[in-house]
Amino acid sequence: MSASSLPLLDAIRTKLKWHQARQRVLSENVANADTPGYAAKDLAKLSFRKELVASVSHSVETQVTHPLHLKATSTTSKSPFDFSREKSFETTPDGNAVSLEEQMMKVTANQMDYQTATTLYSRGIGILRTAIGKR
Fold first, then answer.
1. Helices (H), 6-47
2. pTM
3. Which of 55, 50, 56 is nearest to 13 (CA)?
4. Would you list the DSSP string of 69-106?
5. Do the Cβ atoms of 14 and 78 come closer than 8 Å?
């Protein structure tokens, strides 16, 4: 198993990709703030636990060596990148339902979560480097 295929790092990579996709959707919302009839979109929340379970390699299985041992099973989840329409508090007379204040707060929160995931990923790589003596 390579260091790049570790389940935890793979789940963090998926989380980073989700934040990148969400940033793109939120920026489209801001760009269309004056478009008549445009409703804001967002991505469905990403479950880190489900992604971690889904990223576990299915080629590795536990070996039952005693009749009282339990065999481990793994589960899979559906794609986390589903779109959802947001319910807006206000809608302009031309049908636009984008609140710039809400979108900018979401952009800021998304940026902070992305930075947190990036820090976790880089520290995980640092721990692996220390473990194999590559400092």
1. 7-31
2. 0.67
3. 55
4. PPPP-------S--EEEPPPS---TTS-B--HHHHHHH
5. no
Which residues constitute the domain of residue 109?
3-132
3-state secondary structure of 49: helix
Count of domains forming the chain = 1
What residues have CB less than 8 Å from 17, skipping those under 6 apart? none
Spatial distance between the Cα atoms of 120 and 126, rounded to a whole number of angstroms = 10
Tokens coding 67: 């009749």
User: How far from chain centre, in Å, is Cα 50?
Assistant: 10
Model pLDDT for residues 43-69, shown as the tens digit of each residue: 988 876 776 676 665 555 667 777 777
In 3D space, the residue among 108, 82, 85, 111 whose CA is nearest the CA of residue 98 turns out to be 85
